[in-house]
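Chapter summary example.
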Amino acid sequence: MNSKRIALHALAAFTCTLGLNAFAQTPSPNALPKGPITLVVPFAAGGATDIVSRLVAKKVTDKTGVSIVIENIGGGGGVVGAQKVARAPKDGSVLLMGTVSTHAINPIARGFSTYHPLRDFTPISLVATVPNVIVLNNNVPAQNLKELIALIKPQPGKLSYGSSGVGTPPHLSGELFKSMAGVDIEHVPYKGGGPAMTDLLSGNIPILFDVLTGAAGHIKSGRVRAIAVTTPQRSPSFPDVPAVAESGLQGYETYTWNAIFGPAGLSPAVAASLAAEFQRAVAEPDVQEKFKELSAIPVGSTPEGLNAHVKSELDKWGPVVKAIDLKLE
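The structure predicted for these 329 residues follows.
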């Protein structure tokens, strides 16, 4: 499968994801767990998923009085944390902030047998979608994507790029970039976007493919240089940063998402109540404004909407994962 066709397989889901806003947000019976609830974030603290998780968890806690405690469990591109939730009690006391990695990429990688993304989880609510971004250490002598490609090509295998882990959207964003640009750069996986950004800032890696939510503050401060976002259009939060497709790689598109899941067997009443509270949290004006600042697009879906979304994402990423023969490390 050529790189252009790979990119086209990744193209349709953005509209589908945004369409989930249309699901009715009907109040559910008050079947919330008494708490405390542990929300497992399957990546290290400081990354995009961690930021989104803490924001909505605090809002739900403030609105309901039910304490939601964040537990960061990094490793395996989200696999370790997701596996814990798949095996958790079926009472709503342990939830997962899942991502495209945990529920659409890792499960279809070669040799993966840890859990099934549909059978082993109860979908609750799609929280937000987020573009990815290519950022550089400020010492890298490239001011845009074309200059970066020109810098990499004469020295194959000499430069490296970081990501939040094997099989994550930033990793696949990097692999798709390599394929479409015809460049050879080494992938350096980290246990989350936070540690990867730390190494970019220190100069240990020159290039980072990151989720825009996690990188936004560093871009605004000027500590790193953003040269392209990975969605077809520019981000409203960073109108001066061009899209990859504008820079010569037409058809290139990737993005990530965050969603709440429980273990399989969670009662429909509990799932509906939790979904209603996360929908209300996402709809709050201050949360919407914070998401905008973080370049995240708020959604807030029903459990049925999230289930349909996961199925569509599995269909979308299957050809991409197969094309690069992804095997989790």
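To summarize the output: Residues 1-29 have pLDDT under 50 and may be disordered.
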